[in-house]
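As noted in the main text, all predictions were made from sequence alone. Below is one such record, for U6 snRNA phosphodiesterase 1.
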Amino acid sequence: AMKAALVGYSSSEEEEEEGQRQGGSTQGVPPASAGRSRLPVPAGLPGDPDPEEAVSDDSSRHGGRVRGFPHERGSWATHVYLPYSVQEEFLELLELLLSHARTYVSSLAAMEEFHLSLSQCVVLRYHWIDPIVRSLKERLASFHRFFCVADQVKVYTNQNKTRTFIGLEVSAGHFQLLELVSEVDRVLEEFDLPTFYKDPSFHISLAWCIGDLSGRLEGQCLRELQDIVDGFEDSALLLRVQWEQVRCKSGNKYFSFPLR
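Prediction:
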């Protein structure tokens, strides 16, 4: 049976999942690079409230999710990703997958937006935003558009096991994604921020639920979900994605970097 991949982010009001492959010996999040302690990792999803606005920690307001990092005014949750714009057929496939997966875990909810992460979610001071955006723009300027195939159903949990995700893992295009991540990493390193995972499982998250319910979703359920994907009409075409831009969300601001 496939092991649950770990996702290195804290459960929080702004939520993001990053797949982290669980290798034979390396468990979980990579160690901090020598001499640098990593910030606790917050999380931000496109379209979620800006940390500036979301000061209250009333967990009843957001489905019982608990903020995983202390709110601090002037700190901006920041995330670099590839936006995935959905077609109607994709939503039909998602609905088939969800209605089947809910026979195993009834509390599954569809993601509201779809993307593929190129960074962890990091905390920026406000005055860092412009220089980081400038640096990203420079590094990504020469990068060409490319295709990915995201067609392998996989189950993920976040680092502290408070949430479970179903995602579509990339089976082709991994090399270009790693190249893109290395450019983003270099920008983050300039500002002494945490870089991406060393052996990432690139994926598009489809659905999530509270708690670690990976045990119910793996094995039988996962095989059946994969069969649904494989048997879906035009799935090969549908799940072959051309990435046209990189996006950075910082608090409530969005920055786009077109690929050539």
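Helices lie at 88-101, 129-140, 174-190, 214-217, 220-231, 235-238. The radius of gyration is 18 Å. These features were considered when defining construct boundaries for the mutagenesis experiments described in Section 2.9.
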